[in-house]
Design goal:
Elements lengths: L1 E3 L2 H13 L5 E13 L2 E13 L5 H11 L17 H8 L3
Antiparallel strand pairs: 1-3, 2-3
Helix pairs in contact: 1-2
Length: 96
């Protein structure tokens, strides 16, 4: 999971992850974020990317995000999948 300042800024990240087959699917949704940065409260519109890929691809996913991201300290969080619909999980492992 990561956030980007806009959909336009997210597209290079999404395209790289999909083209390199690091992710089977990337979902993008608009969000409003409130956070503390450099000692001040910030309120920003962002987009949230839910990146679905293999656990063993995480380091490559992280490296790709870091290379293409605009933020000094981008959010990059890994959430393990503990279960789900088996045909969907199989597709995540081998997208076609």
């Amino acid at each position: 999971m990561t956030t980007c300042p806009s959909e336009d800024k997210a597209k290079p990240v999404i395209n790289a992850l999909l083209e390199q087959r690091l992710a089977a699917c990337v979902q993008i949704m608009p969000i409003k974020s409130s956070y503390i940065w450099e000692g001040a409260v910030q309120h920003e519109d962002e987009v949230l990317l839910l990146i679905k890929g293999k656990a063993e691809a995480f380091e490559d996913i992280k490296s790709t995000i870091l290379c293409l991201h605009d933020y000094d300290v981008p959010e990059i969080i890994r959430i393990p999948i503990s279960g789900g619909h088996e045909p969907y999980l199989s597709w995540l492992e081998n997208p076609k």
